[in-house]
Amino acid sequence: MDPRDPAALLALAEPLYGLAGDPALLQRCINHSLTHWRQGSSHFYSSQSCHLASSGPFAIRINLWPLLPVDPRRRAILADVLSYYDYHDHNFSFITANYFGPGYETEIYSYQRGTGAIYPGQRVDLDYRGRHTLDANTVLLYEQYRDIHMQLPPARLSASLNLMMTPPDAGLTDQFYFDIARGRVRDYVASSSHKRVNALGFARHIYDAQTLALLQEILETHPCSRTRVEAARVLVDVAGASALSPASATRMLRDPLALALWSQAADGAGQ
Question: What span, in angstroms and rounded, lies between the C-alpha atoms of 232 and 244?
Answer without folding.
Answer: 7
